[in-house]
Amino acid sequence: MTTALVDADTFRRAMASVPTVVTVVTMVGADGVARGMTVGSFTSLSLNPPLVLACIGDAASIAPAIQGTTHIGVSVLASDQAELSRRFADTVARTFEGIAHHHGPAGMPLLDGAVTHLEARIVARHRGGDHTIIVAEVSHAVTTDREPLAHLRRRYGRVVPLGSRGA
Question: Looking at the predicted structure, is the pLDDT value of residue 167 above 60?
């Protein structure tokens, strides 16, 4: 028995109801240029070893460059950084010109003011439809108590734990 696949618009609307924390994945290309892109599909994968995964669409301009790199940086954006998400959110990878950032121990660019910074070594790449799933082992992590930026139903918002003020 074959089940018909849901159409792309219906699937997009359905997945928009799944809240995500907004991240910018960064890397330094073979040309030495630091680039970043907002990534909607990012999550932890394993505690031991500490693994994360990010999904990079084939149409993204960062896709070819990330195929040739060995490390990524991840900045989990804070609730007041929606403009940074917009800047890095399209199929064109953005450079860091005019953007406050620093480099972590592995040399990856990390956005200043983010909730969390990670640096990780890519350990696997898998095909998944029209995306490449990047699996990376985290070598460096720094986090703060700032509120992360969330994305739900195509809008930005805040993550407020239950029982917190404002919830």
Answer: no
